[in-house]
Inverse folding.
């Protein structure tokens, strides 16, 4: 029998609390954001100018943000959100802010040019809710890029909701790159996806990364709304 956990209990589950997927990942190199995303976030931000902003969801130790700060002008705004936050004290660059908070509750007080979530959505409960909220946090010509395993989104009976979820995301303006498992959106949108979150299964087992992940269960609604 599948037990669905609310987000507060999910955060205390072993698969989420012990996740180390993103803790050591840095900006460039073998185990890096650049390799996983297919572009260098610092170069992308440099093209935006001195006051470019980057919000990294599930940022772990914040290594990528700190590395980017060393390559960007002082006016850049770099923010990392993680349920646990850095486990090891770090000397963060001046424009880097690392916040320990739940994405189910946290909201930014400004829009961002770049929003990323590198293999972090795998451990979230309401994956679709987080994606929809993040779309509204972009600047009008900003970029959202996050890894998503569609197989981890389920109907109430546990069967895969991958096909209707990807259809709804594409209708809302997202592009899904299956080879990288990367969901991309360009430009801010207010999105209401046609799914109601029911809870998460922390015992779903490994996903395509080979690491234990969380399956999120949704009831499919009849209508959705998407506006710019």
């Amino acid at each position: 029998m599948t037990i669905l956990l609310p987000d507060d209990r999910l955060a205390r589950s072993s698969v989420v609390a012990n996740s180390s997927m993103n803790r050591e990942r840095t900006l460039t190199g073998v185990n890096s954001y650049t390799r996983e995303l297919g572009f260098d976030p610092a170069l992308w931000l440099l093209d935006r100018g001195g006051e470019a902003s980057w919000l990294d969801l599930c940022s772990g130790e914040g290594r990528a943000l700190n590395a980017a700060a060393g390559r960007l002008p002082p006016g850049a705004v770099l923010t990392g959100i993680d349920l646990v936050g850095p486990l090891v004290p770090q000397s963060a660059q001046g424009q880097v802010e690392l916040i320990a908070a739940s994405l189910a509750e946290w909201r930014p007080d400004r829009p961002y040019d770049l929003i990323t979530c590198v293999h972090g959505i795998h451990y979230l409960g309401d994956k679709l809710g987080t994606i929809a909220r993040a779309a509204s946090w972009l600047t009008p010509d900003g970029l959202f890029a996050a890894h998503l395993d569609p197989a981890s989104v389920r109907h109430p009976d546990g069967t895969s909701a991958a096909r209707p979820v990807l259809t709804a995301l594409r209708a809302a303006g997202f592009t899904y790159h299956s080879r990288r498992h990367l969901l991309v959106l360009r430009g801010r949108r207010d999105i209401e996806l046609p799914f109601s979150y029911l809870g998460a299964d922390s015992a779903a087992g490994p996903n395509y990364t080979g690491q234990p992940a969380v399956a999120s269960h949704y009831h499919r609604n009849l209508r959705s709304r998407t506006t710019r």
User: Anything to note?
Assistant: The chain has one domain: 7-189. The mean pLDDT is 90.
